[in-house]
Amino acid sequence: MDRRRIMMAFAVAIPLALLASILVYRQLSRAASAPGHIGSTKIVVAAAALSPGTRLDAENVRQIDWPATKPMDGMFSRVEDCAGRVLVMSLRENEPILEGSLAPKDSSAGLSAMIPSGLRAVSVAVNDVVGVAGFVQPGTTVDVLATGAAEGQGTSLTRTILENIRVLAAGEKVQPDKQGAPQTVSVVTLLVSPDQANILTLASTQGRIQLALRNSGDTKQVDALPAELNQVFGGTPRSVAVRGARPPARPVAIAASSRPYEVQVIRGDKPEISVIPQQ
To answer: Domain coordinates of the chain in residue numbers?
Structure first.
């Protein structure tokens, strides 16, 4: 009898469980297809921290899930779509690979891939002073000052010849130190236009250059006055006249008075005033 009751209970429970499973499945299916459901897609990201000039392959990128409702311009969903491309900027681990962070197709790896079309990379010799104690690092911006004398000019002057120039590399490094520590190098590579490349090369070979480190967010053109020896060691610099400033006023001579001289003469006990006209 007990066995029969157990069998009857199973016969009732199994259909009920099956019916409940069907209902749950239907509810989940409806929720997945309902408006507002957040699905996911695959995007390609950096598998580890990557430096500029790195060529992408299956070893240094991977796919992760990404909300389908949050697409990004230039993102890649397949590794083969970006494999072989070269990075032009640094990426952190799991940072998405975007079209804007890659050099054009068929670009070579290394520093050349980081040079935008129409610009040039020019290297100049530096020391601890010229390189601002090693704090001129990749990614920073500098002004270039040149000191020299033009032909026929008797005195040397220093002037700013280039402003807001990006540093591509310090020595062989294209990445700054993560802790911001200075890097002692003998060569710094700057990103310039073809015209600026000519100016920079002439200044570095015919005169002396100095790099002035500037805030990366400060892009304002200053147009600073050139500094001359007269300005530093005394005298009036010619650069002041160039700006249209008035020269120092000369002393003005004051005309002599035309009033006659008066002389008091005492004759006996009577004083007299004698008038003597000026010549």
So the answer is: 1-37, 39-114, 119-231
